[in-house]
Structure formats: C-alpha cells, structure tokens
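RECORD TYPE: inverse folding
INPUT: structure tokens
STRUCTURE:
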C-alpha cells in the first residue's frame, strides 16, 4: 500500500494539547480569494483572506493573527495544529491562438481530461468546418469526426475526446464552402495540454481498460463509436455479432440489447450530443429506470462507455439500469428527472466506473422520502469493484445506497465527489467494504456516511462543511434520536474508521463522537495514522460487528495518493473537479440552503425547462430537434450510399472518408467504411478511415476537363488497383498510390482487387 502523510503545506505546528481559540476576523471558505487557513486540533478549519492578514506571530503555544484595519488579534491558544494557504480557483489553461483578418476567429481553446475543445466565431459563407488535431497519439494532422463539430448559433464548437495525456496539442479549423475547404482561411490553436482522468479506486484494481477506452485515454482497437442526438437515438445503426452472425441493429436501446446476447464484446463508445429525452429513444428495456445495459450472465464483459461530448450532454426523463455487467464506464454527462434512480447498478456487476457526472433530482415517488426521486446512484446485490468519483450530486435526496442484505464483502470506492447540498446516504452502506476519501460534503442537511449490517467504511481525508452528522453507525451514538430509535436505520450496525477529516463551519447541531471519547455510543473509530488497524474489541453496539481492516491489507487495496482534507474543496470545485467539463452548462445558487432538505421548487422548474443551446451538427441534414438521421459509427464497417447526382468538378480538389462519407459532395459513393485498415498520409495529414474497395463499392463523379487522378491506399494494402470506367488500372504498391489521367466527362471507380481507399486527389493537368 502506498503510504501517505498529511503534513499541511507551509507551516506545521503540531501542538499536542488542545486549548482555546478567540476568533473574530475569520471568514468562510471563499474560492474567489487567496486564503490562509488554520487547522485546529479538533479537525476544524478557520480561513482568512490573505489580503486582510497583516501579520502572523507565535508566542509559545499561542498563535496570533493580525488583520488589517483591526486592532484586536485572533488568538489560537494551544489548539492550532497547522497553517497553510489556498489559491483562488483557477480556470483551465488556454492554448495559444491569434486572430487574423480573413481567417476563422478562434475564441477559446482548452484541454481537459482526455479531451480538448475549441470555440470559434461563425465564418461568413461556411456551411461546415473540417477540424484537424495533432499531438498525443496523432503524429500528423488528423481530421476528427464530423459529429464533433457543432453549431451553437452564435459560435461553433469542436470537442475531441479519446486523447492521451500530453502537452502541446494543436488543432486546425478549416471552413468548408461549396464542398471545398477554404485553406487560406484556416486558423490554428497550439499548446493545448491534456491530462488523464484519475483511475484510482477499486474499479481499476487488477483490471485494465474499463469500457471502450484504454487506460491511456485512447479508444481500444476496433472500437465502435455511436453518436447519439435527439434526432439519431431512434435511427442510429450498426452491426452487432449475434449467434455467430453480423446483424444490423437500429436504435440505441436495440443496439445495447443486442450486446446482451453475449456474442459481441467489441468496444463500444456511445457519445451523447446535446439533450436526449426519453421520448427520443427507440425504446426502453427497463420499466423502472429507462435505458438498460445488461449482460448475458453475471459479470459479462461488456466494454461499453457512455459519455457526453462537451459541457451540455444531458439525458432527461430517464436513468440507466446496469445488470450482469463487467467493464462499463459512464462519464461527462448530466442526468435530470430520472424515472427511479439516475444510475442503478442492480445485480452482479463489477469493474464499473461512474465519474464526472452531474446528478440532479429524479421524478417524485409515492413515498415521503422520494420527493427528490427514489435514489441517485445505487449499488445493489452482488455489485463489486466499483469506483464512483468526481461526480456532483445537486441537492439530491438520497445520494447513494451501497449494498443489500446478505452481500459478501464487495469493495467500493467513493472519491472526489461533490455532495452539493445533498441530504443523506453519502453513502448508506450495508455489508460492503467501502473506501470514502477526498470527498467534499458541502452543506449536507441530514447525514454523511452511514453504516449498517456489518459494513466496514474507511472515511479518509474528506472535507465536511456545515454537515450536522458527518458519520453514523446504525442504532448507536449520534444516530440515536430523542425517542431512543435510529434516525436513519434500525438495522445492526457497521464500523467506521475515520482519519484526517475536517469538520468546518459547524452548525449548532453538529454531532460527532469518537470511540476514544465513548467506546459504546460512538460514531467512528478515530485513527491516529492511516495505516492503523482497528482493534477487534471495537464493536458495533447492535450486532457486534467488527471492522475488517480491508484498507491495511495490501492484497485487497489499490495504490492511491490522497491529498490533505483542507485542499479537497479547491480540487473538487476546480477546473479538473467534479461534474462535467467546466462544470457543465447548468448552474444554481444554493446560498442559505445548508440546512434545508426540502425540494427546491425553483430548481426543479429549471430542470423541467432545461434545453441545450445546441442548434445542430455542421453538415448534417437535420438538427437534433428534427426527425431524420445524423451521426454514425466509428471503429467498424458501416454501409453507405450517398445517392444523387454528383457535382461536376472544376479545379483541383480532394476527398477523404473520415466521417464515413465522402468529404466532398462532387463524389457519389456506395460502399462500406472501416477504421481498422491502416492509415494513409496525404500532404502531411494522416487519414484513419477508408472506403473498402469491394464488389459492392462504387464511386461516381464528373469532370469538366482533363485531370490527373491520384488515389491513396492503406499502409497495409498489398494491391493498389482499381477499375476506372470498367478498365483495371494498377498502382504503385511501394508508395500505396495510383496515378492516372482521366478525360473530361462522367467516371465510375469500381473494384479490381480488394484494397482500401483513403483519399482521392484530382488536379488540373495544365
């Protein structure tokens, strides 16, 4: 196990004897100011804006804080344990770009976690944009998928997921007019830095590549990508291996259901664009939750990631049920007004990773405790090796149920979640062994962590701000109400080991009792080091459960690097913190709501009325608010037929197939596409998606004059030939190209030998 100390930065006083504090000039934690903080021996924290601190001095065991404009000092008499400093919140670092007249005007370029994004002003006359990325796994400029380039009316935006961590990414935006790139109007952003998601937690213990992605952030080999908008959720099509046959499936839920047959484990990335409502889906396979991801048998390998694109990806009116699944990931989208639970890990799941999700109210249920929905993220029977990290729980009623009666010891991690004025269950644990570290409990109205039924919870280095009951064990300590009954459960108790937590801005109702204070009516065993084992004579009052010390067992634990609790709020609320990219496109002010656990009716109305500002995808025939098909599939074969008459070609042009369609409308194409047939580099740009030259393939176009045609084939092709108007023409197998002169008129390219075409270039001969 990776050993960690929690020495506070800057100054460590380590005063052993707690005494008193006289404080008048302190303030609350403020992310908009640089602050100094003092941690006291009772695990409380006191803040001062550095601009208002004139002097800090020490006299024996006393610490004096002199504030500007105030004659009286704040005095900490023997109870200051450490002093540190917190910087105000910092935004994502920007890449470099310039604005030149006559070029695309880039307005924002930033990297995030395994992704980056650009924004730019609409370019006069452009009907679309081709966007290219270089850096990380892309050694040369490579065009991104068309679906990632979106129209927001007043601005255009491109997001690029699936990037490995690296500094110095470059992105080029080229406007497209009349089907042709306007290269002399292109603009470039450089110096964009991308970092990895944190993969600390039980989900990744002895398991690599959860979902459709490798641990370095890149898509797995042969991964398929489905782009889902309100317009395409019913019509998206791909092939799925079912009973040893490739079967075409249409509709999001229908495609996922086909994976339940167990014949296809091809990695599948489902990318949500804009807002998706329940009525947009082809169907739902869970009557309770909505969308269902289900394996054939217990712990079936799925290799599925459901992720949002950008900062506005949202599902509304339904949640997600996961059953019998192994290797599923959810990231970077919001869930609003779900049917029952936002995400329910129902039965026999393992290696599930839920992170960077914004979780809101569900639909009102029939019970008194279901006003905000039945649950948010629930883990039930047989679910194990799960990581729930960097999620934001927005005023949720019941945040997370963890475990059912009779479960074996299942190992779960919660880290860097932002419990933003949520009420209870952070989590509520039965049976399981759960590690809860570096979470921000921000104005929690009822209670934080609760254990029952023999559960073991290690609650480590969390920041509790105005939380009345940070930790509870069923039927003892602070759980016992005035009537002698448990406030959250009447079940047998579990055991909580606590270490390094901070309890700030305590209310008058704050309650926390350690075993060291009362060895019968206690809320937690307060460890002196994180490696300390809890003695076997520490037992739950009801049921006599003991702590299983999973966290000190090297055979059971994962490596992780917790930060000091005092730094958690800045991390969780920061640029790489909880929730979606840039904390999403929805905001709410919870000022004054710390102790209020009632439904915020204004918030609920705002969720009911929420709409994405997305107008559409550039080059698509329909917008997300209209019927029709847009989007497609990356990482496998896809049939296509771009019917209609081709536009006569004048001048020199090029055509690629990066969006599984010809990039130039002058070409009419029928055939299948693939991203697993090598690459081709043309004039410094590398192309990864090709048109497979098969018996069914046909390419038609018309030229107005004699032209030189150059075809670029894949790096792995052993033959580079094609039929031009019925006559076979052989290419150069060493350079993987074919060059020939064609006359003015209509032309058709068809199969001569099996090969893979990545690019067509037509140039004037004079």
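DESIGNED SEQUENCE:
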């Amino acid at each position: 196990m990776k050993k960690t100390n929690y020495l506070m930065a800057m100054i460590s006083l380590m005063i052993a004897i707690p005494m008193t504090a006289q404080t008048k000039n302190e303030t609350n934690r403020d992310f908009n100011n640089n602050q100094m903080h003092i941690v006291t021996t009772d695990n409380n924290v006191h803040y001062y804006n550095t601009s208002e601190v004139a002097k800090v001095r020490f006299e024996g065991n006393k610490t004096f804080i002199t504030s500007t404009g105030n004659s009286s000092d704040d005095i900490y008499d023997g109870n200051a344990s450490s002093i540190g400093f917190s910087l105000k919140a910092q935004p994502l670092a920007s890449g470099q770009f310039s604005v030149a007249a006559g070029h695309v005007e880039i307005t924002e370029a930033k990297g995030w976690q395994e992704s980056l994004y650009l924004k730019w002003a609409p370019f006069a006359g452009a009907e679309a944009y081709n966007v290219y990325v270089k850096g990380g796994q892309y050694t040369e400029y490579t065009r991104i998928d068309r679906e990632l380039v979106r129209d927001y009316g007043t601005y255009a935006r491109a997001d690029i997921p699936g990037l490995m961590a690296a500094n110095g990414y470059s992105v080029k935006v080229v406007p497209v007019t009349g089907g042709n790139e306007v290269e002399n109007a292109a603009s470039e952003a450089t110096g964009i830095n991308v970092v990895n998601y944190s993969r600390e937690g039980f989900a990744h213990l002895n398991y690599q590549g959860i979902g459709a992605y490798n641990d370095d952030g890149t898509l797995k080999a042969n991964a398929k990508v489905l782009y889902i908008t309100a317009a395409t959720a019913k019509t998206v099509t791909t092939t799925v291996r079912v009973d040893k046959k490739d079967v075409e499936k249409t509709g999001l839920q229908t495609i996922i259901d086909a994976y339940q047959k167990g014949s296809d484990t091809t990695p599948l990335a489902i990318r949500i664009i804009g807002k998706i409502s329940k009525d947009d889906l082809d169907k739902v396979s869970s009557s309770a939750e909505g969308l269902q991801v289900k394996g054939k048998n217990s712990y079936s390998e799925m290799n599925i990631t459901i992720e949002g694109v950008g900062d506005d990806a949202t599902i509304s009116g339904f949640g997600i049920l996961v059953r019998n699944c192994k290797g599923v990931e959810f990231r970077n989208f919001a869930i609003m007004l779900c049917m029952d639970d936002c995400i329910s890990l129902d039965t026999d799941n393992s290696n599930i990773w839920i992170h960077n999700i914004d979780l809101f109210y569900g639909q009102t249920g029939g019970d008194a405790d279901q006003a905000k929905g039945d649950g948010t993220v629930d883990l039930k029977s047989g679910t194990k090796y799960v990581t729930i990290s960097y999620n934001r729980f927005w005023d949720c009623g019941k945040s997370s149920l963890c475990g059912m009666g009779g479960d074996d010891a299942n190992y779960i991690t919660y880290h860097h979640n932002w419990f933003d004025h949520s009420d209870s269950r952070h989590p509520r644990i039965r049976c399981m062994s759960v590690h809860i570290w570096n979470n921000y409990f921000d104005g929690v109205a009822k209670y934080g962590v609760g254990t029952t039924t023999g559960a073991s919870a290690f609650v480590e280095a969390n920041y509790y701000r105005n939380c009345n009951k940070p930790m509870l064990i069923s039927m003892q300590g602070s759980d016992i109400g005035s009537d002698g009954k448990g406030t959250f459960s009447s079940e047998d108790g579990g055991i909580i080991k606590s270490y390094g937590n901070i309890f700030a801005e305590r209310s008058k109702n704050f309650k926390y009792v350690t075993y060291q204070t009362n060895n019968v009516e206690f809320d937690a065993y307060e460890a002196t080091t994180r490696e300390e084992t809890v003695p076997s004579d520490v037992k739950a009052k009801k049921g006599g459960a003991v702590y299983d010390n999973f966290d000190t067992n090297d055979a059971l634990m994962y490596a992780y690097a917790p930060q000091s609790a005092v730094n958690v709020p800045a991390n969780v609320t920061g640029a790489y913190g909880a929730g979606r990219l840039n904390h999403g496109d929805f905001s709410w002010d919870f000022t004054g709501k710390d102790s209020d656990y009632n439904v915020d009716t204004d918030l609920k109305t705002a969720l009911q009325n929420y709409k994405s500002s997305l107008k559409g995808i550039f080059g698509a025939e329909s917008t997300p608010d209209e019927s029709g098909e847009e989007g497609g599939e990356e990482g496998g074969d896809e049939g296509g037929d771009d019917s209609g008459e081709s536009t006569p070609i004048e001048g020199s042009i090029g055509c690629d197939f990066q969006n599984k369609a010809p990039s130039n409308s002058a070409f009419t194409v029928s055939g299948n596409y693939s991203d697993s047939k090598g690459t081709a580099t043309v004039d410094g740009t590398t192309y990864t998606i090709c048109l497979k030259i098969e018996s069914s393939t046909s390419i038609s176009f018309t030229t107005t004059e004699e032209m030189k045609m150059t075809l670029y084939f894949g790096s792995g092709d052993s033959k580079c030939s094609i039929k031009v108007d019925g006559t076979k023409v052989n290419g150069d197998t060493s350079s993987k190209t074919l060059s020939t002169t064609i006359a003015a008129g209509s032309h058709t390219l068809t199969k001569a030998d099996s090969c893979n075409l990545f690019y067509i270039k037509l140039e004037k001969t004079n």
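NOTES: The longest strand covers residues 166-177.
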